[in-house]
Amino acid sequence: MTRASISLRPDNATDLLIDGKLIPGSGGTFEVVNPATEEVIGQAAEGTSADMDAAIDAARRAFDQTDWSRNHAFRAHCLRQLRDALLAHADELRELTVAEVGCPTFLTHGPQLVGPITDLGYFADLAESYSWTTDLGEASPMGIKNRRELRAEAIGVVGAITPWNFPHQINFAKIGPALAAGCTVILKPAPDTPWCAALVGKVIAEETDFPPGVINIVTSTDHLLGAQLCTDPRVDLISFTGSTDTGRKVMAAAAPTLKKVFLELGGKSAFIVLDDADLGAACSMAAFSVVTHAGQGCAITTRLLVPRETLGAAVELTKNAMAGLAAADPTRPGTVCGPLISARQRERVEEYLRLARDEGGVIEVGGGRPADQEKGFFIEPTLISGLDNSARVAQEEIFGPVLVIVPHDGDQDAIDIANDSPYGLSGAVWGTDPDRINAVVDGVRTGTMGVNGGIWYSADVPFGGYKQSGIGREMGVAGFSEYLEIKAVATPV
Ligand code: NAD
């Protein structure tokens, strides 16, 4: 295999990857916009329903007619090859990712690029080390002695539907374990971030041994191509990350064919400060967390719950910390808060800021577009006080650099407020007494919790939500197992 450059087509566009071939979209192209400058930086292939049909067909044939699902060593080889090829292109990919996603450059050294690429190695290792068979020994049901064995098998064709906020992280958290498990995949990325997926498709086609049809990538502005994956009987599993509203549609669309649906959805996670915590350190961390990538992270803590008697001090500490983290050019070293992904997303956040004011909230800092940014979909880091947890801005996912501070009256009250949410994705607790911290960790109904700044994000840590934040877990052995079926085999002895 040769090492190509991550170049675009001469017309500055990317292609679809279907059945091992890079091809233009049947619908022409659509524009890719840099959210920090509002400039059109190029084009992506506009896939159509016919393209999606061809991709599903290719994935089905690759699963049914090749030994991909049974050749564990070959899958591990292809995944490591892809990891190494992408790492060799990391600098080119970094530039294009920051331009397309608007994410701060520092994040591309972690979860926005290099982290998830490196994690492909974890899934390659799992393909080889996983216990594909389990001996259950002998038993005599109905008086006849049998030897029983369990075999883990790939579930089949996976439709992976992803959002725009951490495109590489989410794309690889799906295709990594799905391919390692022996599935074949059709990836449909978000219309706002087609290049992150398409450039990976180019590397797959030109620099790896993945057989045709094993991985297909269909970019498009048409959300209904995602729905097509959900309804098509040739697809065995939908792995979806996105909003809770779309998650409901995905589940409903998949119901007639009763395919497995694995959902990673929204969040409104609470950052709980106990009365024995270092208030300054906690408020600084809460501020940093909510402005990172302009708050466009499903697991970001967006409700800050502080002891009532410290509310005034906590507001001062948090707003000062947020004021020092101004929204700025994401290519500039040191930027933590870049732009929102699109004008549409900025309008959505502005609508919530209006709503906060209408409901009687106080904007302590921020509250609008930064005066020093003439272009780009920026919103200032914003702290809202004066509302309780029933306010819409405390209940609904805003997906911007917006933090709502709410007072609590003790540890149990903090747990109750944290749980007073339709979501249950993540959370944080700050304190000193380990027993009190553990009681909070036990009491909050979420898939992940960070203690005193602890970072749970890692390839081997399952990630996912309780309640309306989703169904299933991504990453770790649990995430790998989502892509497997279990076959029980019995033989008379
Ligand atoms: P979205 O729900 O609008 O879109 C997600 C994907 O679904 C896109 O690829 C879109 O084209 C596709 N889609 C849209 N309508 C569809 C339909 N009817 N059927 C099938 N597919 C359809 O989400 P978004 O705005 O791109 O991303 C932001 C959301 O994603 C936030 O709610 C955020 O919390 C969530 N998110 C969750 C996680 C997690 O792991 N829990 C991670 C990141 C983002």
Outline the structure in words.
By secondary structure, the protein is of the alpha/beta class. It has 2 domains: 16-265 and 470-492, Aldehyde Dehydrogenase, Chain A, domain 1, CATH 3.40.605; 269-458, Aldehyde Dehydrogenase, Chain A, domain 2. The chain is built from 16 helices and 22 strands. It has helices at residues 49-65, 72-88, 90-101, 114-118, 120-129, 167-181, 194-207, 224-231, 244-254, 279-291, 311-323, 343-358, 392-395, 411-419, 434-443, 476-481, and strands at 16-18, 21-23, 29-33, 40-45, 133-139, 146-154, 157-161, 184-188, 215-217, 237-241, 260-264, 269-273, 301-307, 362-365, 382-385, 402-408, 423-424, 427-430, 450-451, 466-467, 470-471, 484-492. The strands form 6 sheets. Strands 14-15-16-13-12-18-19 form a 7-stranded mixed sheet, with helices on both faces. It has a 6-stranded mixed sheet with strand order 9-8-7-10-11-21, sandwiched between helices. It has a 3-stranded antiparallel sheet with strand order 5-6-22, with no helix packed on it. Helix 2 (72-88) packs antiparallel against helix 5 (120-129), helix 2 (72-88) packs antiparallel against helix 6 (167-181) and helix 5 (120-129) packs parallel to helix 6. It is globular, with a radius of gyration of 23 Å. It starts with 15 loop residues before the first strand and ends with a strand. The mean pLDDT is 97. Nicotinamide-adenine-dinucleotide binds next to helix 8 and helix 9. The active site is at residue 264. InterPro entries: Ald_DH/histidinol_DH, Ald_DH_C, Ald_DH_CS_GLU, Ald_DH_N, Aldehyde_dehydrogenase_Rv0768, Aldehyde_DH_dom. GO terms for molecular function: oxidoreductase activity, acting on the aldehyde or oxo group of donors, NAD or NADP as acceptor. Belongs to the aldehyde dehydrogenase family. Keywords: Oxidoreductase.
